[in-house]
Amino acid sequence: MAELLWRSPDGPPGAIGVVPLLLGGKPTVAMPWAHVGTARAAAASDTAALVLSDPRLAGSRWAPLVATGRLTLVEDGDGDLFTEELLAQEVRKHPPARALADSPMLRREHWWYLPRLVLVLDAVDVVPGGRRDGPADAVLGVDDGRLHVRTVRVPDWDADPLPVLDGPPEASGPAVLIGQEISVPDVERWTVHTTTGRYADGGLTGVRPAATRQLEPVPGLFARMRRQRSLERACIQALKAAGHA
User: Given phi > 0 = left and psi -120 to 50 = alpha, else beta, which region is 118?
Assistant: First the structure.
């Protein structure tokens, strides 16, 4: 798992949880078309950062890092790019994808899952990062005209102002804290939470907390079916609107 953050024109940085991939040696994210608005907003930003902070499900050579640069969006409307270059990586890294695209039969049945919004990061700066080791840890993004990204610790999520340890001492401005909770090893449950406000002097004021930071409960059979059907409808609707279906 990874975090993708980007500068937003009218507020705190955008932030989402993603599956990190590589395309032509460049850090890449491949989002289903249900997330077309988010993908286009990230691509429109002048600065984005892909953050590796979560050691869960990582390989032996994993190390935390922050890659900063600008995103290029490739709208893969037929899914050929994703299927040929990225699918094998996603199936290996993201177990839920196996139920939708791990065989030719599944790919025919779930054709709407293969078209992707491929965000490729042209990284101009890659630096070591910090790892998240528990629910008190999060990734902080601060926009003061530049995007500052650090892994931080929040000792009390209920406080306001919100104390933030190990943040960038020189930065102040609109900010976002993003954390992720996943079920290991299946990743069937994946909760991404964001808290926003204004960062300065080691704290966040004007806090707008996440709705929840807890890992979602184990879904039942019908909940799984509803979730997949909702994703399918959203993907097909977006593909049709873009003239790809």
Answer: beta
Question: Residues 214, 189, 157, CA angle at the centre, nearest 5°?
Answer: 15
pTM for the structure as a whole: 0.96
Q: What is the mean pLDDT of residues 68-93?
A: 97
Q: Where are the beta strands (DSSP E) in 7-64?
A: 14-18, 21-23, 26-32, 48-52
pLDDT at 77: 96
Parallel, antiparallel or unpaired: strands 203-208 and 190-200: antiparallel
Cα–Cα dist 58/10, whole Å: 35
> Positive or negative, the Cα torsion across 30, 211, 6, 25?
negative
**Are the C-beta atoms of 20 and 4 separated by less than 8 Å?**
no
Q: In what order do the strands lie in the sheet with 147-153?
A: 147-153, 137-143, 173-182, 190-200, 203-208, 162-163
For the chain, the straight-line distance linking the first and the last C-alpha, in angstroms and rounded, comes to 30
